[in-house]
Amino acid sequence: MTQPHDANTALARRDLQHIWHPCTQMHDHEHVPMVPIVRGEGPWLIDAEGRRYLDGISSWWTNLFGHANPRIAAGLAEQAKTLEHVIFAGFTHPPAIELAEQLVKITPAGLEKVFFADNGSAAIEVALKMSFHYWLNQGHGEKTRFIALTGSYHGETLGALSVSDVALYRKTYAPLLLTPFLAPSPDAYEGEPGESPEQTATRRLATMRELLEQHAHETCAVIVEPLVQCAGGMRMYHPSYLTGLRKLCNEYNVHFIADEIAVGFGRTGTMFACEQAGVAPDFMCLSKGLTGGTLPLSVVLTTQHVYEAFYAEYNAGKAFLHSHSYTGNPLACRAALETLAIFRDEPVLERNRVLSVHLAQKLAPLRDHPYVADVRQQGMIAAVELVADKATRRPFPAEQRRGQRVYLHGLENGALLRPLGNIIYFMPPYVVSESDIDQLVRIAIEGIALAVKD
């Protein structure tokens, strides 16, 4: 079908009349195009004039099995004819029950209870509140603090921001936020010269031990993003850090919260990142890929032991206090069930391993690029760190917005590559082909060449 040649412009104009977009300086759209997407097809997004964009970031890390996935769409259509929503206090429904049962089966052993929420930030809020409330119910009301990692990001509601370490957010909203204890990240990029990622993890665990020795008595939980600190710059670290952290949390009697919102569901090479360390957290937060990128849904899984701290007669006043109107939404639960069915019925992780090797091979030449300090990868997540000086790793000034040049080059050439500052990353849907990866990397390399020019 022939599309009007000015359809994008018309939709963009209408959008900018009323819509305020997330994580955006709206003034940018005086010179950065707004892209109206009207259709999705596998790893492709299609705009109002028929131009196609290869989705290199899974639409903010959510889309696993392609846009307009027929299996998920069919499940949603069937569910919509039966039950679209029902209050989840005092009521239940089969999609939520089945989803909880399946999640308990596939997540690390010991996670037996599932609490539903709407999105990733909400899941973090639930985990923080649940950990604090557990200790309160146990007679330890003095435990009111949390430990997070430097460079961490856990969401943008106030509780989630409180345990994040993104300078811009903390500077802007500091008067509204809790203050966590910050432990140095085990980020391998920040390792000492000649130090292996595992040695960096060991050294950072020693610092975490010192922090717990001083503050465990007032600490509810340690919260981390397992293996990859995504929004903090795709920082990656060795699984041994998680193994050691689990032991420290046991030793010092604090909870371990695993934020697998971005890294869960096969993104790091295993179904869940914690599997690579052989650990089970006290709380696991999941969202994004949970529904294959179709509808908002999140869950917090926790242990029977935590659950029992809230289980009492009504008058004891120990019930957990958290709710959302759309908690356990049947449509979202059905999308999640179809997503899990694809993992069950198809060799997703095996195929991802092949694709991740291919991605690594295509990115390898960038290791020698004069303005690239690091090329790192964990499964289906890869990142390229652009710097002004390779020898010293001196970054480009943020105000130069070099990464934005790569983004704009991507749009001009049919690819969605939305960098984190000057870090160009790849997190494509699992339905990409090797030729799709070739195209993404080629466009990125071209964009990098343009971005580093003075």
From TrEMBL:
Annotated localization: Cytoplasm
Pathway(s) this gene product operates in, as recorded in its UniProt entry: Cofactor biosynthesis; biotin biosynthesis; 7,8-diaminononanoate from 8-amino-7-oxononanoate (SAM route): step 1/1
Purpose: Catalyzes the transfer of the alpha-amino group from S-adenosyl-L-methionine (SAM) to 7-keto-8-aminopelargonic acid (KAPA) to form 7,8-diaminopelargonic acid (DAPA). It is the only aminotransferase known to utilize SAM as an amino donor.
Gene (name only): bioA
Name of the protein this chain belongs to: Adenosylmethionine-8-amino-7-oxononanoate aminotransferase
Alphabetical UniProt keywords: Aminotransferase, Biotin biosynthesis, Cytoplasm, Pyridoxal phosphate, S-adenosyl-L-methionine, Transferase
Modified residues (N6-(pyridoxal phosphate)lysine): K288
PANTHER family in the cross-refs: ADENOSYLMETHIONINE-8-AMINO-7-OXONONANOATE AMINOTRANSFERASE
Record: residues binding pyridoxal 5'-phosphate: G120, S121, D259, H324, S325
Protein's UniProt keywords contain Secreted: no
Gene3D superfamilies associated with the record: Aspartate Aminotransferase, domain 1 (3.90.1150.10), Type I PLP-dependent aspartate aminotransferase-like (Major domain) (3.40.640.10)
Residue sites binding substrate per the record: W60, Y153, K288, S323, R418
Claim: Acetylation is one of the keywords in the record: no
Quaternary context: Homodimer.
Native source organism of the sequence: Dyella caseinilytica
This enzyme's EC code(s): 2.6.1.62
Family designation: Belongs to the class-III pyridoxal-phosphate-dependent aminotransferase family. BioA subfamily.
